Amino acid sequence: MMLRSLLGEPPRQNEGLLGDTINAMIQTTKLLQKETELSKDPTHDFRKLEIWTLGLITSLDELEQCLHAAAFFRKKVVHDSIEDMDPAERSDYARYVFFYKDGFIRVFSTLDKLGTVLNELFDLKTSKVKAHFSYFTVLRQFRYMKVHMELGDRLVAIKEKYKEALAELRRRRNTEIHYMNSEMKDDLWQRHQTLRGKIELEDLDQHLHDLEQGYLMVCETLHTAFAYSNQRWKKVSLK
Predict the structure, then answer these.
(1) Please, what's the b/e burial string for 40-62 (b: 16 or more CB within 10 A of its CB; e: otherwise)?
(2) Which of 32, 111, 198, 211 pairs as cysteine with 81 (C-beta 3.0–4.6 A)?
(3) CB 62 within 8 A of CB 73
(4) Hey, is 122 helix, strand or coil?
(5) Which sign, positive or negative, has the C-alpha torsion 161, 163, 168, 170?
(6) pLDDT by residue (tens digit) across 112-146?
(7) Is 3 helix (H, G, I), strand (E, B) or coil?
(8) Structural contact between residues 176 and 105, judged by C-beta atoms closer than 8 angstroms
(9) What is the reported pLDDT for 192?
(10) In sequence order, what are the beta bridge partners of 81?
(11) 125 backbone φψ class: left, alpha, beta (φ>0; ψ -120 to 50)
């Protein structure tokens, strides 16, 4: 919500898929609070999961804000090369790059946090396979352990639905973290192609589209995982 205020916009209304996803996670925290009260949670497992779920709500909120801010500043960029921009437009382009990069990094960090929650929630024992595991490693554990395969299959279907955008976001994330700024890589390639010509900006609209797809993938994944967990929890409670 904070970024909209800084941009002079009204607060976001949590509607549609975003609203449903946040509501599913809030429902999980309430179920965990109830379990804590009933059992007194001697091992603090329920409290830990509650804190992690609240953290995921924050992570999703921050990812959505990054996407929104990147789209906001992209609209202010009208020239196709930095050389043609005045100082104000260069600043808006720099802000777009900042929020775009922050966004695609948050796509994977949010998924990995979810992986930690799922591993704990469903006792998937992923750390025995890999000490520092990602969401995608956890996803493979459903089938390997032959547990909650209905959920695992749904999550795999979501991953496949968005695989092209995810592959591009992962490539740019890896470039950003391990090699150089992803936009600099684009610049170097264009320098090589044009030699002395102007460097045209990367395809901002395509990059924003990929980031939006990544955000939707995160929303659908979170919603599916927590709705399944809530439904299962209620069935167990009724027995």
Answers:
(1) ebeeeebeebbebbeebbebbbb
(2) 198
(3) no
(4) coil
(5) positive
(6) 999 999 999 999 999 888 888 999 999 999 999 99
(7) helix
(8) yes
(9) 45
(10) 200
(11) left
By the 8 A CB rule, do 165 and 214 touch?
yes
**Cα distances (Å, whole numbers) of residue 112 to 128, 133, 161, 209, 232:** 17, 8, 18, 22, 22
Residue 65's CB is within 10 A of a number of other CB atoms, namely 21
CB-based burial label for 39 (10 Å; 0-12, 13-18, 19+): exposed
Which tokens sit at 209? 């589209």
Amino acid of residue 102: D
With a CB cutoff of 8 Å and minimum separation 6, the contacts of 179 are 185
Cα gap 184→105, rounded to integer Å: 17
Q: Which two tokens stand for residue 222?
A: 């979170």
Q: How many residues does the chain have?
A: 239
**Structure-token pair, residue 173:** 């994330």
Contact 90, 18 (CB under 8 A): no
Please give the average pLDDT of every successive group of 10 residues along the chain, which has 239 residues: 81 93 97 87 86 97 96 95 91 94 96 96 90 93 94 98 96 81 54 56 92 98 97 68
* Residue type at position 6: L
Taking the alpha carbons of 67, 25, 45, 232 in that order, is the dihedral positive or negative?
A: negative
**CA–CA gap between residue 195 and residue 215 (Å, rounded):** 36
Element (H, E) at 239: none
Dist CA 82 CA 43 (whole Å): 56
